[in-house]
């Protein structure tokens, strides 16, 4: 009467014993997957961390250059006297990119392009002067 004919007939297993076996299998599979994930994530990917970090750095470079240009424009406007135009140089953008964002080896052309973009977007024609357009035409 205690036997279940559908599960282990003739072996004396009850439904509770079959359920415990099922839970054990699920827990064992979960532990195996966790161990495999820890090994894969921990050891296999670590040799590529430097490459991934460099990829992220170069993907962020255009955004960081635009922010550097904005910061250089703001600093130049702050430093300018009341009736004088703010002077923004490509070197200022390179300095901010190196000091604030850690981009030491940025080309002058990339910094000049970011400065031109932000110069026009921030309507700097009225109160600023820059050498970014000279870099574009190869002057200076």
Describe this structure in words.
This protein is mostly helical. The protein has 5 helices and 2 strands. The protein has helices at residues 15-44, 49-79, 90-101, 108-121, 132-137; strands at 86-88, 128-130. The protein has a two-stranded parallel ribbon. The model has no long low-confidence stretch (mean pLDDT 82).
Write the layout of secondary structure elements.
Elements: H1 15-44, H2 49-79, E1 86-88, H3 90-101, H4 108-121, E2 128-130, H5 132-137
Parallel strand pairs: 1-2
Helix pairs in contact: 2-3, 2-4, 3-4
**SSE pattern, N- to C-terminal:** HHEHHEH
What percentage of the residues does DSSP assign to strands (E)? under 5%
The computed structural class is: mainly alpha
Radius of gyration: 32 Å
Q: How many strand units?
A: 2
The strand line-up of the biggest sheet is: 1-2
Gist of the model:
With 140 residues, the protein is mainly alpha-helical. It is built from 5 helices and 2 strands. It is 66% helix and 4% strand.
Key traits:
single chain; 140 residues; mainly alpha; two-stranded parallel ribbon; rod-shaped; 5 helices
């Amino acid at each position: 009467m205690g036997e279940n004919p559908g599960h282990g007939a003739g072996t004396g297993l009850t439904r509770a014993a079959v359920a415990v076996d099922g839970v054990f299998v699920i827990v064992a599979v979960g532990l195996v997957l966790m161990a495999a994930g820890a090994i894969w994530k921990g050891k296999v990917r670590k040799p590529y961390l430097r490459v991934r970090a460099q990829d992220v750095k170069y993907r962020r470079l255009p955004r960081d250059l635009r922010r550097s240009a904005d910061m250089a424009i703001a600093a130049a406007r702050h430093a300018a006297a009341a009736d004088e135009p703010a002077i923004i140089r490509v070197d200022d953008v390179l300095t901010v990119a190196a000091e604030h964002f850690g981009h030491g080896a940025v080309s002058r052309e990339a910094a000049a392009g970011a400065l031109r973009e932000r110069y026009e977007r921030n309507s700097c024609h009225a109160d600023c002067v820059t050498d970014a357009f000279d870099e574009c035409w190869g002057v200076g």
